[in-house]
Amino acid sequence: MADHNDFGKIAEDMAADYLQKSGYKVIARNFRFQKAEIDIIAEKNDLIIIVEVKARSTDAFMLPQEAVTKTKIKSIVSAANHYMEEFDKDNEVRFDIISVLPDEKRNLIIDHIPDAFQALDAN
């Protein structure tokens, strides 16, 4: 496995841990539908929260959340719709992004962006 894949896995584990410590219930990880993948599906206050985790070793070129393109949003929304149908959920859905970046001392810092985009952004 490549180093960037290891870093991505570490970032997803950190994000899931962060969510649990913040009162979220993680109900699925790496949920796949066709070619789409949802990193984390969580629940809090009767909301289903779809979380895209973005990790970068540097923000020199772009912030991690800037990598969530319109195409990526369409893919996430499609997978979220499938999840909701497959598990017969009728909760309101929120789309969050968690970015993980090292600070100047190489400590990994989490930035949670609730309600980062809407399903309508996929259109």
UniProtKB/TrEMBL annotation:
Q: Does the keyword Hydrolase apply?
A: yes
Record-linked Pfam families? UPF0102
* Keyword Nuclease recorded: yes
Taxonomically, which superkingdom? Bacteria
Q: Name one GO molecular function term.
A: nucleic acid binding
InterPro entries in the cross-refs: Restrct_endonuc-II-like, tRNA_endonuc-like_dom_sf, UPF0102_YraN-like
The entry sums up its family as follows: Belongs to the UPF0102 family.
Designated name of the protein: UPF0102 protein EG359_14655
- Write the lineage as a comma-separated list: Bacteria, Pseudomonadati, Bacteroidota, Flavobacteriia, Flavobacteriales
